[in-house]
Write a structure and sequence with these properties.
By secondary structure, the chain is α/β, with parallel strands linked by helices. The strands form four sheets. Strands 1-2-9-6-5-3-4 form a seven-stranded mixed sheet. Strands 7-8 form a two-stranded antiparallel sheet. It has a two-stranded antiparallel ribbon with strand order 10-11. Helix 4 links the parallel strand 5 and strand 6. Helix 6 runs antiparallel to helix 7. The radius of gyration is 20 Å and the shape is globular. The model has no long low-confidence stretch (mean pLDDT about 95). The structure holds nicotinamide-adenine-dinucleotide and magnesium ion. The site of magnesium ion has 5 residues, from helix 11.
């Protein structure tokens, strides 16, 4: 079983990755004797709750099952979780367990961050996206009608348990959406990992346990290094901070805004955004056109979209990207590639090349 460490001084924690971990008693040893609460959603509860419940001997009062979906990441639901924690008298030395995808992880993490000024929590991610991205790094929060993830806290988990077996029940589209973020890590930080993904794509698409665990391990490793360097996303451009993790995301957010959240999964929009970032990097002469093509081919072979919605124009992109939080002092900052495996956050690029990329993808 590969285990990793996120290195954050006294807030360091392990990430355990492997098949069948949910029912692995030795893993849960660390929580024995503690007062525990678990939050999950209906989809995950039907499939995977029993394994965790029996491994931890949780009774019904200790489990809260929410409806699935992004709407649960709200201030109101976070409030109702606080009510439940108080009513069931979770003590300050108790621990909250998040069993589910990024929605449950973000909501439960935020609930743990604010309950009695902060209690421990454990991430048990069950989507590929949450196993490679949202469960690691300590960003927690809920949405506000005026913006996604606008209310939140940095609160690191004390442990992450990524059971690759849970991915077998994940809808195909959700699996591919997570794969887009895996490809992102290769493109932004490790050319050899991108080659590895290219060679093992079929294994990843069929959820071969060894290849899947390896993809998650390498993704988490990369995120862990970047988070250790820049826990609160405060590093300036060019210093290798968390902003690098947004490769493809400015284009993706423009697509999500245009399509309306929900029609395109985040990872699907990221997949297209990665193609656009690679294309622009090639037009700027920073990477070879062949390298950009390799990225687009890999994304296409995965079954992920490589083109934005058909009705989207360059103007739509420019308008929506100007709303993106990565605009600093009126200049659009993008994460671009100096080479495959070497991303940079920069506002220093020729805007006419961006116009060409937008024309090309909206054509
Ligand atoms: P999700 O939590 O909504 O899960 C997707 C769907 O899959 C849901 O219907 C869920 O019930 C279902 N599901 C989960 N696990 C399953 C399984 N094993 N088998 C069958 N069905 C299963 O979505 P997500 O993509 O995991 O997470 C998206 C959220 O993550 C967004 O709210 C996003 O803002 C957040 N996010 C947070 C961070 C961070 O750093 N905190 C990073 C990226 C994304
Ligand atoms: Mg993302």
């Amino acid at each position: 079983m590969p285990s990793l460490h996120v290195d954050l001084g006294h807030r360091s924690y392990p990430i355990h990755i492997g098949a069948g971990l949910l029912s692995d008693g030795s893993l849960w040893q660390a929580l024995r004797g503690r007062s525990l609460r678990l939050i999950t959603d209906e989809h995950v509860a039907a499939l995977h709750l029993d394994a965790v419940r029996s491994a931890l001997a949780l009774d019904d009062d200790a489990v809260r099952v929410l409806p699935p979906g992004e709407a649960q990441k709200s201030w109101e639901v976070a409030g109702s979780v606080q009510d439940w924690l108080l009513q069931t008298r979770l003590a300050r030395d108790g621990c909250l367990i998040a069993l589910g995808g990024g929605v449950i992880g973000d909501l439960a993490g935020f609930s743990a961050a604010i309950y009695q000024r902060g209690v421990d929590f454990v991430q048990v991610p069950t989507t590929l996206l949450s196993q490679v991205d949202s469960s690691v790094g300590g960003k927690t929060g809920v949405n506000h009608p005026l913006g996604k993830n606008m209310i939140g806290a940095f609160h690191q988990p004390i442990m992450v348990v990524a059971d690759t077996g849970t991915l077998r029940t994940l809808p195909r589209r959700e699996l591919l959406a997570g794969l887009a973020e895996v490809i992102k890590y290769g493109m932004l930080g490790d050319a050899s990992f991108l080659d590895w993904i290219t060679h093992h794509l079929d294994d990843l698409l069929t959820l071969d346990p060894v290849a899947t665990a390896e993809a998650i391990r390498r993704s988490c490793e990369m995120k862990a290094v970047i988070v250790a360097r820049d826990e609160r996303e405060s590093l300036a451009d060019g210093k290798g901070g968390r902003a690098l993790l947004n490769l493809g995301h400015t284009f993706a957010h423009a697509i999500e805004t245009h399509a309306g959240y929900g029609d395109w999964l985040h990872g699907e929009a990221v997949a297209t955004g990665l193609c656009m970032a690679a294309d622009l990097s090639a037009r700027l002469g920073w990477i070879d056109a062949d390298d950009a093509r390799r990225c687009v081919d890999l994304i296409a072979r995965s079954g992920l979209p490589t083109k934005p919605p058909g009705d989207m124009t360059p103007q739509d992109f420019l308008h929506n990207m100007a709303l993106d939080k990565k605009v600093a002092a009126g200049r659009l900052r993008l994460v671009l590639l100096r080479a495959i495996g070497d991303a940079v956050v920069t506002a220093d690029f020729d805007p006419s090349r961006l116009a060409e990329t937008l024309e090309h993808f909206c054509g």
